[in-house]
User: What shape does this take?
Amino acid sequence: MSDSNITRFPTLSISEPDAFHAAVKKLRIIFAPASVILDDVRDSAREYREAFDALDPLIQYYTSRVCPFCGTVCCANRHGFPAFEDLVGIMAMGFEIPEYRLDVNEKDMCQFMGSAGCVLPRQQRPFRCTWYFCDPLLVQIEIGPPDHYTRFVQGLERLGAARRKMLETFHPVWVKFSRQKKDKS
Assistant: This one.
């Protein structure tokens, strides 16, 4: 996907609601039919979801011990806003795209932050919410049992590899859809 002639995924911004809603609409069109062309995407998305499911208990264990006592909440709207690739993953895994309020201040606490942490399951969050770990959290993981640290590193590697595979599998579908849309214009 590094070739400059390849159709890129759109870049989304919280300050461009029309582009965001257009991207969501396109993805809903692509994922609506039970198309055979999406079978490989959904298969790779199952691996992605399994990677989330395997890593989630470990992350929950540590965030439940660190985050409630933190004076600086990392979860801001700008970090909770999804990239296009996040939306692909959410839909490919069979989840609905959450209802995002786009008229929020980017610096305010994330709109999905509840009294006990994020109200969204980890699989519905932007990828950066899954792989961002503040220093206090990393310290706790590092000083915890050695097998936790090993599982954490292996889990992140598996998650990243599964995400890349899913997006690489989806890319030709996106290219074909984008070309069809251009041809109809």
